[in-house]
Amino acid sequence: GHILSCEDLRASYCGTDRIPDIGVTTLMLRQVPRHFTLEQLLSDIQTVVPHTAYDFVHLPFDAKRSGNITLAFVNFVHPEAALRAFVALSGRRWSSASAQPCRMTVAKAQGLYENLAHYESRMGRPGHTGNPPLVLWGGRAIAPADALRLLRCRDGE
Questions:
Q1: Which residue of 11, 39, 45, 82 is most buried, as measured by CB atoms within 10 A?
Q2: What are the DSSP E strand ranges found in the chain?
Q3: In the beta sheet, which residues pair with residue 57?
Q4: Confidence category of residue 152, pLDDT binned at 50, 70, 90
């Protein structure tokens, strides 16, 4: 089939969420069903982009409610993948037939490094959720702290 360009994707989007600006890689997914696990979230994301399209997925957990906080943060490797996921998932019903559709917005932290640094800065704080983000490096899962070290080495810090 014909693969739409970014311009075509932008033009084809008729949802209510604000379309991300050019260059955005990290999206916040809202109205995630509270019972969703990381595996269920990834399964829904992978219906629209391959697992190689993202390198950071965080589904913060709320221990008091024994479920997620209904938000997830996903960093895509390229802005084009973020746009494709945005257009395909925005307003779409989750696979669990939840009443609320997926809503999407641009996350404050952008890029793998900023997301990891943000997560690291929150560790150990009151109210911090224990579940770490999924971080993919070269296609395999690694610990967030290891990914931060690798990025700092690569960038000469």
A1: 82
A2: 26-30, 54-58, 61-62, 67-68, 71-76, 103-106, 134-137, 140-142
A3: 74, 134
A4: confident
How would you class 21 by CB atoms within 10 Å of its CB: exposed for 0-12, middle for 13-18, buried for 19 or more?
A: exposed
Asked whether the predicted pLDDT for residue 126 surpasses 80, the reply is no
Distance CA 17, CA 105 (A): 7
Q: Rounded to an integer, what distance in angstroms lies between the CA atom of residue 140 and that of residue 126?
A: 30
Output b/e per residue, 77-88; b: 16+ Cβ within 10 A. Answer: bebbbbbbbbbb
pLDDT tens figures, 28-67: 999 999 999 999 999 999 999 999 999 999 999 887 878 8
